[in-house]
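[step 3/7] fold_predict: job queued, chain A
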Amino acid sequence: MSVIEKLAGFQQYFTPVLYAFGISAIIMETIVMVIQQKQRDKKSRWLGIGCGALSFGFGYVFYTLFAYGAQSWVYQYRLFDLGFAWYVWALCFLINDLVFYVSHRLDHEVRLLWCVHVVHHSPKHYDLTTGIRGSAFDAIFHFPFIIWIPLLGIHPLIYIILDTAFKFYGLAYHTEFAGRWRLLDKILVTPSNHRVHHGSDVKYLDRNYSGFFIFWDKIFGSYQPEEEKPNYGIRKNWHSYNILNTQLHEFIDLWNDVKAAPHWQDKLRYLYMPPGWKHDGSGKTVKELQSGIINTSLR
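[step 4/7] structure written:
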């Protein structure tokens, strides 16, 4: 049996096991919440589970029917023959982590991508159901960022196995049960670091994009330590338990903004300018909001 056949067989069992782990973790978290009598929005948690089923379900179908084949086709034109040595796995993991940082940052800084990613930030609570709460379009919009990786000589099976594990590490740090971890907070994306990312407080907006190693944020100037407890959710006045509205509300707002713009140049800008940008100057982007805090603090 070849290495590829062995990896394919492993992957068939690996993904369901991690899915079962995620479901079990959510059940255990719910039991602990009940025992500790923690206040929780049951409807929002169920909504998160529904959105998670859409995101992971559509993602699995998309990758099985299209993405894996596309990456395999790209792999034929690889620039290097790296094989399956341990350092290739390490390289793939590091590349995937950097790609996650870049794509995640663009999710927040490009309006069209924010229409997809906003689903993940919409709950006003922070728990494991927030971790799985995603858009049905996640895989489609993320795919352009990772299609090129096989060109480096990294086999698609290496990528899919590591990325699956990566996603479920990302689930684990969506919790308030863990406090600050001092040394680990300086190296890894921990619950404390990622709670900041979900904060709707102005100083927490668009911070801590990293997925595994937090040093990407420190390198690119987007790191913010957790200070006071974040207020979770999104800043716009929106609330719904309807799964379709949760998935599409930002696309609807984008469409309304595009229709309202009088010039085609402004219509196009709405697609790639940051959330909050308005053609008539009536809105504020995150950078403008944070600039206001800085200016006020200097007075």
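[step 5/7] annotate
The chain has a mean pLDDT of 92.
The two ends are 70 Å apart (CA to CA).
exit 0
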